[in-house]
Design brief:
This protein is mainly α. It has eight helices and two strands; from the N terminus they run αααααβαααβ. The protein is 69% helix and 5% strand.
């Protein structure tokens, strides 16, 4: 089955004149490590944003207003603390989406030397990025997580949104491991593969 997949991916990359070249699918381990690298970068950016927010809050609203946070007061301080990490995170994801649209690689994929390709060899671009990264990956996964969370919450009478997200993430990773083409749900929807870059 792996040989069939590699034959399907044997199309000449768009814009290449070096002849036909065999593409090798990224392993589930490569994909997991690329997600971990992306997550660590994301967490680092959120922490830096949080530190900037606290420093800005100290400068803009002062320590007296920050002391009121424990009592539920000072919306100004809360906004000053929340806005910098939020802007950095949004900026980071716009940067990542631009990388994916241009090269088919997030920072983690670049580090692990893997990239996203389409099944038919067409140009990747923003259209494919929006379908795969936003519509397929986030919206559908959030919907699945929400449904599983609602079912678990109803069954256990407790908030289980974190457990639901973990179950969905684990299920998607297991899907990659058992799928003959190493595709996730969002790969199937967007007709993409993740391949090794030489």
């Amino acid at each position: 089955m792996m040989e069939e997949t590699q034959e399907q991916l044997n199309d000449e990359p768009s814009g290449s004149d070096s002849g036909s070249e065999m593409m090798v699918l990224a392993t589930p381990g490569d994909r997991l490590l690329s997600y971990i690298v992306d997550a660590l970068i994301f967490i680092g950016i959120a922490i830096v944003g949080g530190i900037i927010g606290v420093v800005m809050a100290l400068v803009v609203v002062g320590s007296d207003e920050l002391e009121k946070l424990g009592d539920g007061g000072s919306w100004g301080a809360i906004l000053v603390i929340v806005i910098p990490p939020l802007l950095l995170i949004v900026g980071f994801w716009i940067f990542v989406l631009n990388m994916i649209a241009r090269d088919g690689q997030s920072p983690g994929k670049k580090v692990l030397k893997v990239r996203i390709v389409t099944a038919d060899g067409s140009d990747w671009g923003w259209g494919g990025t929006l379908v795969r990264e936003i519509l397929s990956k986030f919206i559908i996964v959030w919907l699945i997580s929400g449904v599983i969370g609602w079912i678990l919450s109803s069954a256990t009478n407790s908030d289980t949104s974190g457990i639901a997200g973990l179950i969905v993430s684990l299920g998607l990773f297991i899907w990659i491991v058992v799928d003959a083409k190493n595709q996730t749900l969002h790969d199937k929807i967007a007709s993409t593969y993740v391949v090794k870059v030489e």
